[in-house]
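name: query_chain
kind: protein
chains: 1
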Amino acid sequence: MRRLDLAASTIVFFVLGVSQPLLDLLGRNAEFFLARAAPAGDIVVLGLVVGIAAPLAAAGVVVGVDRLAPRLGPVLHLGLLWLLGLLAFHHLLRILAPGDHLPWLRVVLAGVFAAAVVELYRRHEALRFGVRVAAVAPLVAAGSFLLVSPTSQLVRAEPSATDPGRVEVTDPVPVVIVIFDELPLASLIDGEGRIEAHYPNFRRLAATATWYRNAVGVEQQTEEAVPAILTGRRVADRAIPTAANHPLNLFTLLADTYLLDVHESVTALCPAFACEEERARRRASTRRRWAQLLADLRIVAGHLFLPGPLTEGLPPIDSTWADFEPGTEEPRLAGDDVERFWDALEEEDRRVAIRRFVDGLVVDDEPRLSFLHALVPHVPWSYLPSGQRHGGDRAPGSEGTGWGDDPWLVAQGYQRHLLMVGYADTALGAILDRLEATGRFDETLLVVLADHGVAIRPGVEHRRLITPDTVGEIAAVPLFVKYPGQREGRIDDVRALTVDVLPTIADVLGVELPWVTDGISLRSPERARRTESTMEGSRGPVTFGVDGREVLAAARRKVELFGPDGPFGLAPRAHRELLGRPVAAFEVREPQGASVFVPGLSALQRVDLDGETLPTWIRGTLLGGDVEGRSVGIAVNGRLAAISLVRPDAAGRPSFGAMLPPDTLREGANELEFFLVLDDGSLQSLPR
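structure:
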């Protein structure tokens, strides 16, 4: 009976402390598996291992130690129960009292509660009997994950009735749809509603398409926003974005008459009968898939179980759906390992889906639907407009899923976003070039839009939370439609919704939709009757007017931060006009006690302008002198390339960071100089 108690208590405490919290989190976030195109078998194995095998293995270890070392067994058993109890209570306290205030107090309280429960268990037979009965907990945890949770919908076989029936397409023109993720219209325009010059390909598209400049999304989250676009209907009750939950969508509508080239990122709306090849392409090899899954689970578990201060070194899990582990230095590889390495690198690279999509834009005898949901410019903001990496770490100013209170650091985070918007523009240019090269651009129905935006302002609680104050950043999105035969651009300022996209496609193709939609064709005069719009958010719907004033206000705030020259115009306002000037044009004063330490400068002595990474992110620490709140100027090859404010780092040391414009770098060795920028516009040298 004693060893039965050892096993039963270990199993129950393990489930409460580890299995249930982890499976509950994964069960509520099916997108974790959708993002990696995980087959149902992987999900089942994970549920059985975490829910059943792991608790049984822990119990086996405890019983085995007790058999081999009877004196050590009870000590190990009670210590393990206390640790598992601490994890369970710590998780419960984080739910009851969320936030990172006094994280160690939560740990202490959890430890006290766990010790009390273990002592009660040790003293009272009635409690031990209850634990024996509760030893079925692994079956409950695994069963809940595999049979009841939202993720369980990915395990069940996809219903065969996902085909809405064959429809007649009277005008079967090529259809190309590009959805950019997390791209607010305010990032593209100036305060007057014009596309800024540093986004030449969006300007190019607007010159030949109809720009619905007053378009807004209807859903805050990608998991609902993309299905809303592809079904023409608002999404209810956080339905998982699969074909089983959304059987009436654009892909099932055209599957019988169109060739489908579909590149989904975090959805699985294209049914298996039409897109199994695409899913298989996204799916990694078994070995690679499980290696990445286990790496991601380790990071998720760290965020789930560790106190806030101990998670600071972990990669964030609020920025992406999978592949949380950041890239490391390329290992030394040989033979077949090289191919596996590049395969793995491609699967972690958001640029690859765009390249594959562009390559798939070919001419066919049959009509073709080409669809891309690009995870650009979604966080993490890793790319320069060229598509090269800048080498920076997490966006400055970010705190969890929101933003801190320091306006300068948040502005630097905003700069990272705008650089990624520049890459979205570059990707759009590649798509337009390819369509023109095929000779089918004129006859193609081309739709380019975003699912939702992002809010980047000091004090914002969540960058994607729709509130009356964030409508201009979250709801307002770009929407361009280049109709077949259209050659001149047109601006339409009547309110448009992203749920209007599907009815518009059906209208152009001459298809009678076999289901009712919430949207209407963008060519319908009925749009002019709209007097208000609503976006669904995680805290309920937000309703706003249709005049579009919110997005113009957001664009004006952006221009105030960066000026008219785009993201590299970021500088303290009093010194912005100094950017780009040669150092020889300044009065340069001798050092006055302060110096600078900048790690990683060796990378700037061997710059490859065509390389995977351009080392444009510079971070340094100031030593000595009165430098708090001062401005640091960075000169590259004789010109002042960037100016940054001094801010304390995590250790309280005065530090700075700056993004160098790529065009200031030259091949090979580059010369960097550092200065304090004085109030009168002169420079004071900072020796290294």
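note: Confidence is low (pLDDT under 50) at residues 318-347.
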